[in-house]
# Entry
Amino acid sequence: LTPGAEIEHRVSGTDRGLWVFVLAGEIQLVDETLEHGDSLALTGVADLKLMQQGPDIAQVLLFDLPIGSV
# Structure
């Protein structure tokens, strides 16, 4: 994400969970600021907005995974 950029992700169902991992830079999501090396797991969210923070480009991995018994 370039400085000032934001992206939105719509979760495809209530049986899904999100895991966000910041590879570089800094982002803002769900009232949290995450920096290089930080991660956050989320459940029960329908939509997610990621906003780049700071002067550097942010690189983020976003996993949208099924939740349930294996």
